[in-house]
Amino acid sequence: MGNIQHVTSADFDEKVLNSDKPVLVDFWAEWCGPCRMIAPVLEEIAATQDNLEIVKLNVDENPEIAASYRITSIPALNVYSGGQVVKQIVGAKPKAALLNDLADYVN
Questions:
Q1: Which residue in 24, 25, 35, 92 is the catalytic one?
Q2: Distinct helix (H) and strand (E) counts, the chain
Q3: Per-block average pLDDT, block size 10, for the chain (107 residues)?
Q4: Within a domain: residue 107?
Q5: Is 25 contained in some domain?
Q6: Which ranges in 49-94 belong to alpha helices (H)?
Q7: Which of 7, 16, 25, 32 is catalytic?
Q8: Is the pTM of this model over 0.90?
Q9: Residue 2: its pLDDT value, please?
Q10: Which Cys-Cys disulfides exist here (predicted)?
């Protein structure tokens, strides 16, 4: 059961693309109100399961990663498995809706 880590351009490949389990990347920014609203929900999810890693990537500090995945609205949640995007969720959602969207990846 994990805590949410922050990733950057320097360790994105290692922590996300090369992970042996699915990874949810929360694309966020400090100024984004909905990003701040969803953060505690993601913390709760991270604390209660261990099948899915959850990491945060600040789009202002790592614009090249956000651009390479065509992130145009935040919060954007991408699930990566085997180095590929397998699920995309855009916008803040309540915990129940997020868990429903992530049902294939959480225990």
A1: 35
A2: 4, 5
A3: 86 96 97 96 91 96 96 97 96 94 90
A4: no
A5: yes
A6: 63-68
A7: 32
A8: yes
A9: 61
A10: 32-35
